[in-house]
């Protein structure tokens, strides 16, 4: 065990190993604080990274090594954009923060060596046009301050996107970045189990609308504020762990299989219909692309068994919480009953949740009709919603369009939508070209990023994730794969 730990430390290198320890300490402290302080709040702490967290992050960063105080600086930069809370539409989540911290530390090290920390790439032009479309939408906004703040966030995310691919120079760098991208999400998934075992969380539901409940209990968020975004980020990370395992190119098979187990458990506890649908789609993509032999088929069956066991565990946790929260009236759920109830709500088009989304789609289309070129302004969908749909028609009126493309069209007009679609389709095209040029083993990594991006894009048919750091970092992985495979391949051709 110690030997494997030493090998892991040697693989990461001294600096990244220290960063890994820093992040682990912060995650433990933040999650422990959430667990202990939940009784004093109406609902589980959303980890808005208020000044308390900033001070905590700063102290722990300095405790490891002085220049990693930049982690705290990163939080402060984001706090400037969000003022009272880190709220990139739904709230900035811990795993995203820590991966961004890893990136900032990496960039700082390059800066100390007097190297450039960012560069342009194949997605730079559509991203620039998208940013310009955001500025153009100011012509239609009714609240300049809020819209400008959101544009500042987009510029910040675009900057991080340009930093990330520039720093990755080798396959080892790529694998290390995949690790830092994945492990905080797995950490959050493990915390979800502790969250549902927390007695003070069982009665949270009385403070939250029924759309946030399943089996009479609050849906698990694991520090993401919204269970749907917890599910979205799990879906983005799952292929990164799943693809190498099915392909059989990982030496340590215990870590990925346990990670898949905990991620699936958290996905079930989140009770996100979008997450379940997208998870099935991503699993199908991975199976189609990577199952090429009897061994890979067997490993796929192993994963299926792990998924079933995770569902059993999640259902047992729900039963335990029910029986303790409502001892007189609790009825144990049969395995799959939660899944069945959520599936039924999708089939009922007249349900409150579905009706809310349909009204949001209508409102977005009406806004685009009245403001086709530049939209109603960045982050102004919710404000303009009641001009088109009476909020009283739904019990839980929408605050977003529940669709990234419709919301972009409504808020940023046809120019914004055009730029977004350009980014999406160009990314897919780059990944397909990278897949065709990569070796057999390397195809696995390309397939995993393609599945991750596909999972995100499917999710955003029902959610709005434009301000999700994970989206921009996934685009960064697209460019990295382009650099590793396509540029190298083109250079080899030019030498012949």
Q: How do the strands and helices of this protein lay out in sequence?
A:
Layout: H1 2-12, H2 14-37, H3 51-64, H4 70-82, H5 94-112, H6 124-136, H7 144-167, H8 171-196, E1 213-214, E2 217-218, H9 227-247, H10 254-270, H11 273-290, H12 294-325, H13 337-347, H14 352-370, H15 381-385, H16 404-437, H17 440-459, H18 469-495
Antiparallel strand pairs: 1-2
Helix pairs in contact: 1-2, 2-3, 2-8, 3-4, 4-5, 5-7, 5-8, 6-7, 6-16, 7-18, 8-9, 8-10, 9-10, 9-11, 9-12, 9-17, 10-12, 11-17, 14-16, 16-17, 16-18, 17-18
Describe the structure.
With 496 residues, the protein is mainly α. Helix content is 70%, strand content 1%. It has a domain at 1-117. The chain is built from 18 helices and two strands. α6 packs antiparallel against α16 (404-437) and α9 (227-247) packs antiparallel against α17.
**Percent of residues in β-strands:** under 5%
Strand arrangement, largest sheet?
Answer: 1-2
What is the number of beta strands? 2
Largest sheet, if any?
A: 2 strands, antiparallel
Oligomer: single chain
Radius of gyration: 22 Å
Organism: Candidatus Woykebacteria bacterium RBG_13_40_15
Pfam family, one: Wzy_C
Protein name: O-antigen ligase-related domain-containing protein
Subcellular location: Membrane
Task: List the defining traits of the structure above.
single chain, 496 residues, mainly alpha, two-stranded antiparallel sheet, 18 helices, O-antigen ligase-related domain-containing protein, WaaL-like, transmembrane, membrane, O-antigen_ligase-rel_domated
């Amino acid at each position: 065990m110690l030997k494997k730990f030493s090998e892991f430390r040697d693989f990461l290198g001294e600096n990244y190993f220290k960063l890994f320890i820093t992040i682990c300490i912060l995650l433990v402290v933040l999650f422990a604080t959430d667990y202990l302080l939940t009784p004093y709040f109406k609902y589980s702490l959303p980890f808005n990274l208020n000044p308390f967290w900033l001070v905590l992050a700063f102290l722990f960063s300095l405790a490891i090594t002085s220049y990693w105080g930049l982690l705290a600086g990163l939080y402060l930069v984001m706090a400037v954009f969000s003022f009272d809370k880190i709220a990139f539409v739904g709230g900035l989540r811990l795993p995203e923060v820590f991966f961004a911290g890893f990136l900032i530390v990496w960039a700082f090290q390059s800066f100390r060596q007097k190297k450039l920390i960012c560069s342009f790439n194949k997605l730079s032009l559509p991203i620039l046009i998208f940013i310009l479309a955001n500025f153009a939408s100011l012509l239609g906004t009714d609240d300049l301050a809020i819209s400008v703040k959101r544009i500042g966030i987009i510029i910040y995310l675009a900057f991080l996107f340009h930093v990330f691919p520039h720093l990755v120079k080798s396959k080892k760098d790529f694998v290390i970045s995949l690790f830092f991208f994945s492990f905080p999400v797995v950490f959050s998934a493990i915390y979800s189990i502790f969250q549902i075992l927390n007695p003070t969380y069982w009665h949270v539901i009385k403070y939250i609308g029924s759309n946030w409940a399943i089996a009479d209990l609050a849906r698990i968020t694991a520090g993401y504020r919204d269970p749907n975004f917890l599910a979205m980020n799990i879906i983005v990370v799952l292929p990164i762990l799943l693809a190498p395992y099915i392909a059989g190119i990982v030496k340590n098979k215990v870590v990925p299989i346990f990670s898949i187990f905990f991620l699936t458990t958290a996905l079930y506890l989140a009770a996100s219909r979008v997450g379940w649908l997208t998870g099935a789609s991503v699993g199908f993509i991975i199976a189609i692309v990577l199952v090429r032999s009897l061994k890979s088929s067997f490993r796929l069956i192993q994963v299926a068994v792990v998924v079933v066991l995770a569902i059993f565990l999640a259902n047992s946790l729900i039963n335990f919480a029910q029986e303790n929260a409502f001892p007189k009236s609790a009825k144990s759920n049969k395995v799959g009953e939660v899944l069945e109830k959520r599936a039924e709500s999708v089939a009922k088009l007249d349900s409150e949740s579905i009706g809310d989304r349909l009204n949001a789609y209508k409102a977005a289309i009406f806004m685009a009709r009245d403001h086709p070129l530049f939209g109603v302004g960045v982050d102004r969908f919710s404000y303009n919603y009641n001009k088109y749909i009476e909020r009283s028609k739904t019990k839980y009126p929408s605050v977003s369009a529940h669709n990234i493309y419709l919301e972009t069209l409504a808020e940023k007009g046809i120019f914004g939508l055009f730029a977004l679609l350009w980014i999406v389709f160009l990314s897919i095209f780059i990944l397909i070209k990278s897949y065709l040029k990569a070796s057999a083993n390397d195809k696995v990594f390309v397939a995993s990023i393609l599945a991750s991006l596909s999972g995100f894009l499917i999710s955003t048919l029902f959610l709005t994730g434009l301000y999700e750091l994970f989206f921009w970092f996934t685009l960064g992985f697209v460019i990295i794969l382009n650099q590793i495979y396509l540029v190298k391949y083109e250079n080899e051709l030019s030498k012949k």
